[in-house]
Write a structure and sequence with these properties.
Length: 279
């Protein structure tokens, strides 16, 4: 592995400019999962903005419980506790937009700190040249019906050399290091990521997703692509991803059954695994 300075609370705080996110930081050498740790802290009453970091995850997981490659000392494994959503959004809109805003915040931080341009695969996969470099996993619970607690989990491959990925992941996984001129300072990247995330969530609370939606569309590699949407208990949809709805749903126009058939209606997809198909 590439030499990467260890995570250090003082180094993170030296450039941290947030008002709440990361003001309470827990840093571990090893945890089964930063999300599981943050969920446990949230249930015990940990305050808004509390963040959990680990140098290594022995049981990291993504969506649907899939294992997440989590080698020590080179990546970012970070989970943040977010309480409340403000008075201006419906609960469903808040919960659907938090993962998208979180993914957008990571792209902005990577651009600012490492000069690496990432794109987004709906809803919250981070891509570098069509390979996955990171992802977001949000888990929510409720103190009351309209008082959500969301744990935002961020996994980002930062300083992993390509040859260090397991062989089966090399065609589909990437690391920021591949296009960076030098190893990336993870402490500075975490501080800036937390700032971008705080600013994005504050904007979502106060102004809604209008500008954020446009910023997400600009970064989204899914739009305009032929895709397959896979559902847990339904038939997949194959079509063109044409837009993003006001509540963050991916709008897919399924292929017409016959060449001379009228265009099919747009379908709003809110929960699915989306696969980019080759043209």
């Amino acid at each position: 592995m590439v030499s990467s300075p260890p995570l250090n609370l003082d180094a993170i705080r030296s450039t941290l400019a947030t008002k709440s996110l990361g003001q309470i930081l827990h840093l571990y050498d090893d945890r089964p999962s930063t999300n599981a740790e943050a969920v446990s802290l949230a249930r015990a009453g940990a305050q808004h903005g509390t963040a959990v970091l680990a140098e290594r995850q022995s049981g990291g997981y993504g969506r649907h419980g899939r294992a997440w490659f989590s080698p020590p000392g080179v990546n970012i494994y970070c989970s943040v506790i977010v309480r409340g959503m403000g008075p201006h959004l419906a609960l469903s809109q808040w919960l659907s937009w938090v993962p998208l805003v979180s993914a957008l915040a990571v792209t902005e931080a990577a651009q600012q700190v490492a000069a690496v341009s990432l794109s987004l695969k709906w809803p919250n996969d981070l891509l570098l040249q069509e390979r996955k470099v990171g992802g977001i996993l949000c888990e929510s619970s409720f103190a009351t019906a309209n008082d959500p607690v969301v744990v935002i989990g961020i996994g980002l491959n930062v300083n992993v050399p390509p040859e260090s990925f397991p062989e089966e992941l090399r065609p589909i996984a990437a690391s920021l290091l591949e296009v960076s001129v030098r190893p990336i300072d993870r402490n500075r990247l975490i501080a800036h990521l937390l700032l971008e995330l705080e600013q994005g969530l504050d904007e979502l609370r106060s102004a809604g997703p209008i500008r954020l939606r446009q910023a997400y569309i600009t970064r989204c590699a899914t739009l305009g692509r032929r895709v397959r949407a896979l559902f847990m208990n339904d038939q997949p949809i194959i079509g063109i991803a044409e837009g993003l709805s006001a509540d963050g749903a991916l709008q897919i126009r399924a292929a017409a059954p016959h060449p001379h058939s009228p265009p099919m209606p747009l379908i709003d997809v809110r929960a699915a695994d989306v696969v980019h198909l080759r043209e």
